[in-house]
Amino acid sequence: MSARLRGGLNTKPTYHKMKLFLPLAACYLGLVILANWLASAYVVHVPLTPYMAPAGVFCIGAVLVLRDWIQQLRGLYWTMPLVYVAGLISWGVGDLAGWTSLEKIAIASVVAFTVSETVEAVVFTPIRNRNLSLGVALSGTIGNAIDSLLFLVIAFGSLGFFWGQFWGKTEMIVIGTLFTMMRRRLVPIAASSAS
């Protein structure tokens, strides 16, 4: 008889999910803060393109994929608060550190990040159980376009870096999608345990 039927709770899957959630959430938060600092300080060439972009572009591309992974692991109710907290922590860190050049970038990031990640969750949620890799790719691409547009307009008042932002994040989304496909092949998760 299962622990659930006996009235007990099987804590092993929850413990395992939490054990994975904590490092992924820390990585997510760290990448958001790093992306804002890099965007305020550097411009980089986007590999495989003729475009330039604020340097945080690669971090945010990874963040778009991590959000989907975290949602797949813990669900939407754990993921969305993390999105909003990450944006606010990034703004707070910049403010406390006195990165005045980061202030406008952080505000742009909070707005673009929360809007794009919310839309990304809306796209990812219905697709993820049918095809996780497609969900990661499609939601990441849509979130990427929204994030790039809003961020650049608010932070710089220009879309001059749009294609650099878009393609830089797309490169990271492609890598994240490939990792998702490889992970699914190597370590499949039953549909009932991933919900």
Question: Which key features would you list for this structure?
Answer:
mainly alpha; two-stranded antiparallel sheet; disordered N terminus; disordered C terminus
Q: Summary?
A:
By secondary structure, the protein is mainly alpha-helical. Helix content is 78%, strand content 3%.
Describe the structure.
The protein has 195 residues and is mostly helical. It has one domain (12-187). It contains 7 helices and 2 strands; from the N terminus they run αββαααααα. The protein has helices at 12-41, 57-74, 76-97, 100-127, 132-156, 162-186, 191-194; strands at 43-45, 52-54. It has a two-stranded antiparallel ribbon with strand order 1-2. Strand 1 (43-45) and strand 2 form a beta hairpin. Helix 1 runs antiparallel to helix 2, helix 1 (12-41) runs parallel beside helix 3 and helix 1 packs across helix 4 (100-127). The longest helix is centred in the N-terminal third of the chain and has 30 residues, at 12-41. The protein starts with 11 loop residues before the first helix and ends with a helix. Mean pLDDT is 82; it is low at 1-11 and 190-195.
What does the secondary structure layout of this molecule look like, with pairings?
Layout: H1 12-41, E1 43-45, E2 52-54, H2 57-74, H3 76-97, H4 100-127, H5 132-156, H6 162-186, H7 191-194
Antiparallel strand pairs: 1-2
Shape: globular
What is the helical fraction, as a range of percent?
A: over 70%
The helix-strand sequence is HEEHHHHHH
Main structural class: mainly alpha
Enumerate the spans where pLDDT stays under 50 for 5 or more consecutive residues: 1-11, 190-195
**Global Rg:** 18 Å
Strands across the major sheet, in which order? 1-2
The proportion of strand residues reads under 5%
How many domains would you count in the coordinates?
Answer: 1
